[in-house]
Amino acid sequence: MKKAEPIREYRRVGVFGLGRFGFGLAVRLSELGAEVLAVDSDTAKVEEIDTRVSRALALDLTNAFALKKADIPSLDLAILCIGRNIQSSLLATAVLQRLGAREIWVRAIDQSQSEILEAMGVSKIISIEKEMAYQVAQKIMLPEVRIIASITSNHLLAEVKVRPKFVGKTLRQLDFRRTHGVNVVAMRSRQTVKDPDGRERTEWILNDLPDADDVIREGDVLVVIGSDDSIVALQTEL
Fold first, then answer.
1. Mean pLDDT of all residues in the chain?
2. Where in the chain is the domain with CATH 3.40.50.720?
C-alpha cells in the first residue's frame, strides 16, 4: 500500500499578478494567516495592497534579474495570476522555475495554455472559468447540499440534510459507506440550551467524531466525503 503523503503547509505564499483575482487571493490568504508576498509591475496596485499583506513589490514578472529581489526560493508556494497575456504568463512561469520556486500554481486562460503549463511541470493549473462553471453546476444539481470543499476534480466534502426515512436509525444501521459510497465524518444537530438568565435558545452542536451507534435525529446534517456521483445519489435517496 502506498504511504500517504503529509499535507503541505503553505506559510509563505507569493502571489504574482494583482489583477482582480490575484489581488483578492493575496488579501484573503493574508487574512487566513499566511505570510504573503504580493508582486505586480503596476506600482499603483502594489501601493494599494501594501498594508494588507506582509510584503509588496513592484517588479517585472518576466524579468529574472528583477524578480531575484523577491527571494523566490524562500516561498512555500508561488501563485502566478497574470490575466489574459498568455505569453507573459508562460514566460513568468519559466522565470519562477529558473529562480528555484518550490511549488508553482498558475492561472490558465484556455486549454492550450493549460497543456503547455502541464508540459512545463507546473504543480497546479487554475482555470477560473472552469471552476466557476463546476460550482454553478453543483448548485443546480445539489440544491440540498452545501459544498464545503472540492477534494479532487470529482470528490467533495459536503453537508447533506437528512430526510425523515433516516431519522431514528444509527450510522451502523444505515452503513453509508457500503450502501452509498460515502463516509460520514461529522454530524451537526440542533440543541436547545439555557442561557444563565434562564432563557432558552437553539444552537448547532457539531459531533466531529461520530460513533457507529449515534442516532440520526430530525433536522440533523451529515458531513460526508465521497464522489460527486455518490453524493448526488445520496441526496436523491435522502
1. 85
2. 12-126
Residue 150's pLDDT band (boundaries 50, 70, 90)?
A: low
Q: How far is CA 2 from CA 5, 164, 182, 235, in A?
A: 9, 40, 22, 32
**pLDDT number for residue 136:** 64
Neighbours of 76 (CB within 10 A): 16
Note the pLDDT of residue 161.
Answer: 85
Considering only CA atoms, which of 69, 27, 32, 30 is closest in space to residue 45? 27
Q: Cα separations (Å) of 141 from 18, 228, 231? A: 34, 10, 10
Q: pTM of the full predicted structure? A: 0.60
- CA 129 remoteness from chain centre: 15
Query: In CATH, what number does 132-237 get?
Result: 3.30.70.1450
Integer Cα distance of 213 and 105 in angstroms: 43
Domain ranges in the chain with CATH number 3.30.70.1450 = 132-237
Nearest 5°: phi and psi at 210? -60, 140
Alpha carbons 132 and 61: distance in angstroms, whole number = 27
In the chain, the amino acid numbered 153 is S
Assess contact for 66 and 39: CB atoms under 8 A: no
Q: Quick one: DSSP state of residue 73? A: G
Cell of 87: 505569453
Amino acid at 163: R
Confidence band for 162, pLDDT divided at 50, 70 and 90: confident
CATH class of 12-126: alpha beta
